[in-house]
Every structure is written in C-alpha cells, then in structure tokens.
Amino acid sequence: MFQHLPPLQSLRALEAAARHRSFTRAAEELNLTHSAVSHHMRALEQHLGTALFRRVGARMIPTSVGARLAERVRIGMSELDEAMNEARAGVTPDATPAIVRLEISVMTDLAAQWLIPRLSRFSERHPGIDLVVRIHADISAPDPYSVDVGIWHQRVEATGFVTRKLLDDFVIAVCRPDVVAQIPDFTVADIHQLPMLRFAHRSWRDWQVAAGLPPHEPTRGPIFDDSGLLLRAAIAGQGVATTRSLLVRDALAAGELVQIGDVCIPPSLEYHVNWRENHPREPAILAFWDWMQDEIAAMTPLAGSPFKPRRP
Questions:
Q1: Domain named HTH lysR-type: which ranges (predicted)?
Q2: What does pTM read for this prediction?
C-alpha cells in the first residue's frame, strides 16, 4: 500500500516550488537550501519519468504534469492538516462535523470595499465553512491552481475550470455631500467646478461624454493608482471621483457619498469567479457563489443603472 509515494518532504517541496514559481522561495519557506529543493525535484522527475518544471527567465514554471501534481498534493496536505486538527481536538465521527476551509483569492478593491464588510453574514449562513481570504493586488491573475476560488479581472481559460461573471457592474461619479452643497443649485454640468480626482486606470472622458458634457481631462491634482485610495480621498472630501458602483454601495447607503447625476458607463474590466471543475470542496464553493449572488441581488439599484445583478 502506498508503494508509489515518494518522501513527504519531496512532495512538500514540489507544492511550495509550484506555488512560488521559485526553488529559492520554496527553500526559504521550508527552511531548506536551494540545492536541497533542486535535489528533491530531480528525484521526483526521475521517479515519475517526466519533467515537472521548466525555467523561464528567473522563474521555475511547473509543467502541466507538475501543476496538476502540485495541486493534488496541496489538496492532500490540506486534508491531512484538517485531519490532524480534528485528532488534536478529539473530534470523532459522531462529533461536530469538520470545518471546511476554503481559500479565496480576491482583488484588493473588491475585498476591502465589498466582500470583507459582508463576511460575517456568510459565516452566519455557513458556520461550517471557514474562508481564507488572500488579497491579490496585481491586475494579472495568479496561478489558478493556487487557491480554491479566484475572483479576478481575468477569466481562467484553461480546460477544467468553471468561470462565471460576478455581475454586470458599471462606473458612476461620486462625491461627498457637503462638497457638492458648496455649489448652489448644483447640476451635472457644474461638475468641472469640483476638484476632479484622477485615477491612473480610468479617464474622465467617457463619463463626461455619456453625460453630454465636453470632455475635460483634469491636468492637476493627485493621481491614484489604487481604487480604494481614490475612494478614501472622495470620502475625505477631496473631490469627485469615478468608481465602480459595487465598490461604493456601502458609502452611498451610509450617506458618506452621493452619486452625481444618473450617468452610468461600463467598466473596462469585469470581475470573474473561477474554480476547478469537480473540486473536492465544490459544495462549499457553490455555497459561497450562491451567497455572493444573494448579496448582489439584495442591493438597491442605483439611479440610471442600465445593468442588473445576474444569475447564470
């Protein structure tokens, strides 16, 4: 039994190297030397008779076989970890059901402005599921095998993945109420009288054209590379900003911000939820997906919104 299994340390090295795309970082995590990790990988490749990694510049990229094996090892190690935790706690088959741990990778702005404030409601509905939220700041998607669920701007096109659009979002302009109140009888046409906050990844022009205004790109003031910081600046009263409606729903509901007019334009990027087909934790994943859709469906439509929450 288990006669085909290599040493556990080799499998741990494989999982870490595939996740980090680096033998050096895997060695640091496992408190090994770089040469030890290299030795483990060579031994595994000889044992299996196939390559597990290929070098691309300074990165070690797992082959399709290596990526799949690393993912299976990751799942197995996670199951072992949960089993050890249950044994340590004295959990028996007749005791409370084991907690399912689900690793979620999510874009920074969506996590901070929408997901995290609602997580307590997910825990109340699904007390048997623990979410491990990993923040992803890069606009490009990470390794889709590295987590159970990825909420990114990209669709995972690889075979064997399920990809669903989170919702049809749109971009609006928002400002703090007292800033708008400084201009008597304010209308959308007066927006140029307000400080117009700039975002590195979005121009003001599309919104202004949709509002029937002459395009006027501001040339002064700070430029924000992070949408969360842009919203904080708007809430602090520094000016008017364009933002995804999903990210600003709570601030609008709390009266911290108001929507300028009813102009809505499509965003340049969407949010996609990705997971592997036949995932061993698929019931928990579907519970998480259904909960997100219920949260979205419960949101109050904004003025002028041409888009509605969607379900597959």
A1: 6-63
A2: 0.70
